[in-house]
Amino acid sequence: MLAACSLNLDAAVDCYGAFVVESRPESTMTSIVDLLPNLSCPLLGLFGIEDQYPSPEQTVTLRELLTKHGKDFTFHEYDGAGHAFFAVDRPSYRAEVRPKRGARFGSSTAATSRTRSRSTCARTTLNESP
């Protein structure tokens, strides 16, 4: 997300990005809230409800800030998924969380995406593996 706030991109994906709206305690990782007005493109956010970085509350805060700044974004939140649920080499991996083939997000034109707010949010419950 930092790149999308610093460069002119066509689209960006925030896969469970931590410390966007809050700084990490006892670390040099700092919030990028002040950069959100510079978001240059539609944003797809993929978040686990069981994640703590970002927590569901931080995801809500991010949604509110993006709406306030008139940004184009789509968020998907997954029940049963924690942090790094796309990382195939980690125990937190969830194979059942996959984008649908041909999935699209954002406005149909770049001009529209930069001039009005459009947000979509979805919550998915994951099926437990046998």
Short note summarizing the structure:
The chain has 130 residues and is an alpha/beta fold. It contains three helices and four strands.
Structure write-up:
The protein is of the alpha/beta class. The chain has three helices and four strands; from the N terminus they run H-E-E-H-E-H-E. It has helices spanning 2-6, 56-68, 110-115; strands spanning 12-15, 43-48, 72-79, 118-125. Helix 3 (110-115) links the parallel strand 3 (72-79) and strand 4 (118-125).
What radius of gyration results from the CA coordinates? 15 Å
Overall mean pLDDT score? Answer: 75
Which secondary-structure class do the elements indicate?
alpha/beta
| Fraction in helix | 10-25%
Distance between the termini: 35 Å
Strand content bin: 15-25%
Write down how many β-strands occur, each being a DSSP E stretch of 2 or more residues.
4
| Run of helices and strands | HEEHEHE
Number of helices: 3
Tell me, briefly, the overall form.
globular
Q: How would you characterize the largest beta sheet? A: 4 strands, parallel
Strand order of the largest sheet: 1-2-3-4
Low-confidence stretches: 105-118
